[in-house]
Design brief:
Blueprint: H1 8-17, E1 21-26, E2 29-32, H2 34-51, E3 57-58, E4 64-66, H3 67-72, H4 75-78, E5 85-88, H5 93-104, E6 114-120, E7 134-135, E8 141-150, E9 163-173, H6 175-194, E10 201-205, H7 211-223, E11 227-232, E12 241-250, H8 252-257, E13 259-260, E14 268-275, H9 276-287, H10 296-302
Parallel strand pairs: 3-8, 7-13
Antiparallel strand pairs: 1-2, 4-6, 5-6, 8-9, 9-14, 10-11, 11-12, 12-14
Helix pairs in contact: 2-9
The structure holds adenosine-5'-triphosphate (ATP), zinc ion (ZN) and magnesium ion (MG).
């Protein structure tokens, strides 16, 4: 099987046969073999080396978010269809025995669970915004995070996962500085990915806001050129996959979290996210299932 033909089933089979991905029985949830992880880590390291001169503050968060945060950022208004909630058992001894009996009898038992205070993180940047609250230093701030994120979009496409990793950079500061940073990173991201032999292009994009009102929001986002994506053919030539996204939120987060510039004006935020599994799959699609056979110019960047 040649990784380079556009046949979703064949590509998926090749990924499994070559030990890159391991089926779990859940749609959009795969185990990753060591080669897959080597590629993913190699790419993430290349990104962080490329961005090192910017001196981003490095933060790490658990892949859960306070339910109150999900509410505050408007996630349930905009993307309820993608949300993932954590529930647990908080009942009595008697109810615990009932629960256990239901499980063993093959009956439904989920209604005996109650929502906890947390949800699964849907975007790696969300926990970062509250850390900016207050007056920013002159010139604003830059943070980088990597995290597992959850989205309820089960699919058989190897490029559409329910749980995946995102490397994000988050910039906060004056509107001009934030937009300039976003524009510069769009060029930098394209150059980085082209340098790895990926046939990428950028385009304006919109988020999958829920429902009819959501269509209007998506149209506004396109109109104002708030979101860009870097696209690469992975499972289809006609419908290339977004492997990196750039979002200019204007004052969406800074108004909610009270983030102001040194001169007290309302700050703007922007973020960019590399979908690490998608970049890994794009590299495999472009160069084949075995990285030992990849061009030396690509290998030397991923594993210097
Ligand atoms: P798509 O249009 O394909 O659904 P998106 O616009 O929802 O992508 P973002 O919300 O901007 O993507 O997420 C940032 C990055 O995370 C994307 O550029 C992509 O690389 C990756 N990504 C998004 N959704 C998935 C998914 N379901 N599985 C794997 N990677 C994903
Ligand atoms: Zn983000
Ligand atoms: Mg999406």
């Amino acid at each position: 099987m040649d990784a380079r033909t556009y046949d979703i089933e064949g590509f998926t089979e090749g990924l499994i046969e070559n030990g890159l991905m391991v089926p779990t029985g859940i749609r959009g949830a795969w185990g990753r073999g060591p080669v897959f992880e080597d590629i993913l880590r190699g790419f993430d390291d290349l990104v962080t080396r490329t961005a090192a001169p910017d001196n981003a503050q490095v933060l790490m968060f658990p892949p859960i978010l306070a339910r109150a945060m999900i509410e505050k950022v408007g996630y349930m208004d905009n993307f309820p269809q993608l949300a993932g909630s954590v529930h647990s058992f908080m009942g009595s001894d008697k109810q615990a025995r009932e629960l256990s009996a239901k499980v063993h009898a093959g009956e439904r038992w989920e209604d005996m669970l109650s929502p906890t205070d947390v949800m699964l993180t849907p975007a790696a940047c969300y926990p970062v915004y509250p850390t900016f609250t207050g007056l920013l230093p002159e010139g604003g701030k830059l943070v980088t995070v990597v995290n597992w994120v959850f989205r309820h979009e089960p699919s058989d496409e190897p490029t559409r996962l329910q749980h995946f990793r995102m490397r994000e950079y988050i910039r906060v500061g004056r509107p001009d500085d934030v937009v300039q940073w976003r524009d510069a990173w769009l060029e930098r991201g394209l150059a980085l990915l082209k340098g790895l032999g990926l046939p990428v292009e950028s385009d304006v994009a919109s988020d999958p806001f829920f429902g009819r009102a959501g269509k209007m929001m998506a149209a506004g986002q396109l109109d104002q050129r708030l979101k860009f994506e870097i696209l690469c053919p992975v499972i289809s030539r006609e419908k290339p996959t977004a492997i990196c996204s750039f979002n200019w939120h204007q004052d969406h987060f800074s108004s909610k979290f009270g983030i102001r510039n040194a001169d007290k004006s309302v700050a703007h935020t922007a973020c960019l996210g590399f979908g690490l599994e998608r970049v890994t799959l794009a590299l495999v699609k472009a160069h084949g299932f075995d990285p030992a056979d990849w061009p030396q110019a690509v290998r030397s960047q991923l594993w210097p």
